[in-house]
Amino acid sequence: MTALHAALAGLELVDHPVLLRQRSRDFYWYSPILKRQLDGKAADLIVVPRAVEEVVQVAAACARLRVPLGVRGGATGNYGQMVPLQGGVLLDMARLDRTLWIERGRGRFEAGARLEAADTLAQQSGWELRMFPSTRRQATVGGYVCGGAAGVGSVRYGQLRDAGSVLALKVVTCEETPRLIELRGADIGKALHAYGTTGIVVEVELPLAPAYPWIEMVAAFEDFGAAARFAQALAETDGLFLKLDSLMAWPLPRYFRGLEEGALPEGRHVVMIMVAVGGEMGVMALAAEHDGAITLQRPYREERGHTPLYEYTWNHTTLQALKVDKDITYLQTIFPPESNVAALIASHEMFGEEVMAHAEFQRRLGRTNCSSLQVVRYTGDERLWEIVRQLETLGIKLSNPHSYILEDKGARVPSADLQLAFKRQSDPHGLLNPGKMSRWTA
Amino acid sequence: MTALHAALAGLELVDHPVLLRQRSRDFYWYSPILKRQLDGKAADLIVVPRAVEEVVQVAAACARLRVPLGVRGGATGNYGQMVPLQGGVLLDMARLDRTLWIERGRGRFEAGARLEAADTLAQQSGWELRMFPSTRRQATVGGYVCGGAAGVGSVRYGQLRDAGSVLALKVVTCEETPRLIELRGADIGKALHAYGTTGIVVEVELPLAPAYPWIEMVAAFEDFGAAARFAQALAETDGLFLKLDSLMAWPLPRYFRGLEEGALPEGRHVVMIMVAVGGEMGVMALAAEHDGAITLQRPYREERGHTPLYEYTWNHTTLQALKVDKDITYLQTIFPPESNVAALIASHEMFGEEVMAHAEFQRRLGRTNCSSLQVVRYTGDERLWEIVRQLETLGIKLSNPHSYILEDKGARVPSADLQLAFKRQSDPHGLLNPGKMSRWTA
Question: How far is CA B37 from the centre of its chain?
């Protein structure tokens, strides 16, 4: 590594083996399969750039010396998105974290800015992020757009890949003379959700939503079907402005710690909700129509030591269960449009408590649909894939969380083609996060 | 009327015959059929209350003396909603126009407050009305919730009748001893869109949306099908926060005056758009995908002498055409969910320029759909109903704008039942806007 060290002179480097191992991991260990595959993988050197120019310096060195190059945001991904499969250099973006500007309806951030910091700053001007992952407190803006897909807010604002969800990305290419490329419009797809395989995202411009005061609510139901129909009807009620609509089948709520007494009644399926202030009565009336009861209602607030409702939802649901029971893993699935509720109910009846239904309601392609992060009692790979096959008979498709391969997440073909074509120019030596894009490897 | 005058002593009264006729009219004359039926109908006396107590005084007097009692807001309705069919007293709400309070996400207004004033005040606190009719500059808050259904904003926030779209209504009953009743939750349906037949709405509490900076855009298309598919796809793009998505077939744009040179190219079908700032590139890319071009892009602003884009849309479309051509009328129709675009294209092909397609895209029951206010070259009633029958073969249903009967607007049965039951208590003598609710008359 002498030539590399020389080329990186003046930069902040980390090469202690313990730190290298620690900082080369994300939350892939939710998956027993990924755990086997990725445990022990680590970068050979971590660089902590403080300016885009330093990212350019690293990219040039890696291109010249043919060293693999990965990027680390908050390391909150669940699929080993940032785990270096072939060692090399890992850029830790923690210091590239400035908010460049916030104006009415838009903000621009360096990739390493934490979502929490970005959101808080935006709120000070009356704005907020349209959507964020349940890892809002740890994740970075860049990590979210490179490794995420949707989140808290998607019930109204849709997916990250929808036109308008990201306004611009600035990427550094991995060439001997790296270029800075500003992507806008449809070109954003070249680097969005590419796990950093097509360029190093250094700046992100996001649309901001006006900041609502949000109310957190939990609705509880005896009957799972009623809970599922309520969650769908709630998302379809355009008069209620929502940020969260998450359905959890009993006994999932049994794993949740830290909510108010009585919020999660024994044996009840629950729907966790964030609604803009003023919508409380509308939610309550709709819950009553579905024989449900409101068991929690409180203003949303961010405070150290206080767990917001969204930290029980999305990928945090599995985490909360894993804190209590290590024999748990999860699936991630996409539902058939229009018949998603029927499929959800059928899957709940098919597996009972072995596959605990957990669905996140969201807008997808203009429809109300849900995706599911089912929590599964893990008894072996064979049974896990058998469950997947049975779900498929209900029209429920896997978006495989047990794979670190980009294309296994169900990327649409046009977007995968676009990324492959862009990678030929932006990473001619195939050094960026190697092994993740199967089309490149093939 | 001596006893009535005595009972109304101290109130501001209007009884000059010319003023009575002028102020008893709305925009029903869009319809040649309503024009024949309603021309000449007028109140016998107009009262201009300055406080809710004065409304109570009038209601008590009318109940005791069995005098019909109607309410006038901005008189911008199109179906004779406020036209007194049987004379009597008309309450002109123009002086009951205070904004009671505005707080984060909510505002409460006296019924006679103009939407423009309410919206402007809300904007000063960073909020705005979620939706308004194209008559925003003239219409009142009370008139909108009593006689309106949707409007500019419905493409994201749905219909007025959706849970959460109205937070509370305060109504005065028409009894010898009138009661003040606060309606919340599902009870709002008792007075919402009831044309004032079930109570006199004196206060309205509305949810407010955070105020976005909006951009007005026009996209123009050679092919009508492409324009229709674009308008639907635009509404379905959850990443673009929209306020308006209105499709007008050529030659409708020929009637529009006052837009910038080149905004409405000869022979082109257009889509009029309001999108939150930052979404311009997303709209542009989507238009290009559909072989369309952006022909206007400017910030939305309200200024005397400047016509905002929304004043070419919704019910204003017909008005703009009527300013140029008196032989025009219109229809109002609802489209089949899921196949609305196909039905729209088929209807355009069926009639050509005789029935100029005009569709307002909106959320309805959680789906993207459109309603249409087709502009029709009127050649007689018989042909008009023949057109309606032919539209019905395409699954396009009439929401009859040529009738002043409440139920002809396609009220859902549960809501009509609720209103009838409430009217038995709130208007036992059947004096409120008599002749409009056919279930009561029957």
Answer: 21
